[in-house]
Amino acid sequence: MNKSNAINIFMLTSLKRWVLPTLLAASLAWGAAASDNAPVAADGVILSEPQALGLFYKRNLDLLAARFNIENAKANEIIASAIPNPTIQVEVLELGNNMNQNSTSIGCSQQYQITGQNHNCGPAEYYTFTQLIEMAGRRGLRMQSAAIAEQAAESDFKDAVRIFSNMVRDDFYALVQAQKTRWLAREIVDYYKDIVHSNKLRFQAGAIAESDFLRIEMEAMQAQSDLDNAQAAVEQAQAALGQILNWPDRTMNIIAEEQWPVFKDIGQSLPREQLMNKALSLRPDLQGDKLRADQAEKDLIRAQRLIYPDVTFNAGQAHDPSNIVLNTWFTGAGFNVPLWYQYQGEESQAMVNLRQLRVAAEQTELGVRSDVANAVAAWKSSNKIVNRYETDVVERARKVRERLELAYQKGGATVLDFIDAQREYKTVMLGYYTAAVNRINAYYNLALALGVEPSAELNENTQEPMNISGDRLRKIK
C-alpha cells in the first residue's frame, strides 16, 4: 500500500469518527449527554433521582426510627392530658362473732323491738370515693409541654428527611459522574482504535516513524486502563448508592438516569442576609431546638408551681351498726403541706435544662448562618465554573483536538502535539463532569442550608424504578 492510499484511509476514518464528537458537543447543555455504552448487568434497574429518593424513604431504617419518635411523642401527649383516675375503696370493720349484737343504733333496736330477740346487726361497712385534683394549672402546663414535644419530634423527622435526602442525592450524582467518566473513557478507547488502525497503515506505508506509531499505541493501552478504572469507579458508586438505599440485592444493577435537575428558584439570587433570615425561619433543626426550649420553659413553670399542693377529695357512705345512726354520709379533703421541702431541687433542674436548651438553640442558629454563607459561596462559584465550561472551555478543547488531528494527519503537527491535544480534551471533559456534578451538589446543599426541598412534590407514591434486561436495556441520555 502506498503513502497516498494510507492517507486517504486515514481521512475517511477520521471523517466517520467525528460524527460522534459532533454529537458530544450537544452535551454542553449537560442534560443532553451522550449514551453510556459501557457493559451493564443482564438485569438493570434505571433509577431517576425522584425514584431513588422514593426507595430510600420506604426502606431506610433510620427514617423509620425517627417516625417512631413521633408516635412516642403522641403517646406522651395522651398520657399528659389524662385526668387522674378516682379510687373507690370498700372497707369492712368490726369483724367477729355476734358482731354488734343488740346495738343501740336505730336500725338494730327497731329490729329487736319487732322480734323480741337478740339480733346480730353485722360489721361496719365503709364505701369511699377518692379523687385527686391537680392545682395551679399543672395539668394544663403538662399538656402544653407534651404538645410542644410532639412538634419538636415532627421537626426532628423533617430534619432527618432533609439530611438523608441530600445523602441519597450525593451518592446518586456520584454514580452519574462515574457513568459519565466511563462513557468518556469508552469514547476515547474507541477513538484510539481508529487512530491506531489508520496509523498502522501509515506506518506500513512509511508515512510515519515507528516511534510515533508506538507512542500512539501506548496511549491506546493507557486509554483501555482508564476505562477499566472507570468501570471500577462505577461499581463502587453503585455499591455506595445501594447501601444507602438499603437495596443489597440490586446494588450492582443500579443505573443512574442522567435526567439532570432543573434548578428552581429557591432564593439563590437573594442577598445573603435575606437568605439567612429565610433559613432561620425554615430550618427544622433550629425549629426543633427552639421548641425544646419552649417545652423546658413550660416544665420550669410547672416545677415552680409544685409548691402549691394537690388536693385529694373524698366522699362516701358508712353503714355502721355500732353508731347511733346506722347509715351516714361523709366527705373530706386533704393535701400535703410543703413545710420542710419546697421543691427547690426540681425547680433548679428545670432551670438548668432550660438554659442548656437555649444555648443549644443559639448554637444551632450560628450553625445555620454559617451553613448558608458557605452554601451560597459554593453555589456561586460552581455555577460560574460550569458556565465557563459550557460557553467556552469544552467547545475550545473539542476544536483543538479536531484541528490538531487534521494537522497531524497532514504533517503540520508532531505526534506529541497530537497526543497532548487528546489528553487536554480528556482533562477538560473530566473537569467539566466534575464541575457539573459539583454545581448540582452545591444547589442541593444550598437548599439543605435554607431548609427548603426543591422536589417538594416527592412523596412515598413515587413511581417504581424501571426494570430492564438484555437488549431492552434503555440507553442513558
Molecular structure report:
With 477 residues, this protein is of the alpha+beta class. The protein has two domains: 3-81 and 138-303 and 344-472, Outer membrane efflux proteins (OEP) (Up-down Bundle), CATH 1.20.1600; 87-136 and 308-335. It has helices at residues 3-17, 19-25, 49-59, 61-80, 106-115, 138-204, 210-245, 272-282, 284-304, 344-409, 415-450; strands at 43-47, 87-93, 124-133, 254-256, 311-319, 327-335, 466-469. The strands form two sheets. A four-stranded antiparallel β-sheet has the order 2-3-5-6, with no helix packed on it. A hairpin with a 7-residue loop joins strand 5 (311-319) and strand 6. It starts with a helix and ends in an 8-residue tail after the last strand.
Descriptive keywords:
11 helices, alpha+beta, disordered C terminus, 477 residues, Outer membrane efflux proteins (OEP)
Number of continuous helical runs: 11
Distance between the termini: 42 Å
CATH architect. name of the largest domain: Up-down Bundle
Q: Tell me about the biggest sheet?
A: 4 strands, antiparallel
Helix content: 55-70%
Give the class-level CATH name of the largest domain. Answer: Mainly Alpha
Low-confidence stretches: 1-42, 457-477
User: Would you count the extended β strands for me?
Assistant: 7
* Overall pLDDT metric: 80
The CATH superfamily title of the largest domain: Outer membrane efflux proteins (OEP)
CATH topology of the largest domain: Outer membrane efflux proteins (OEP)
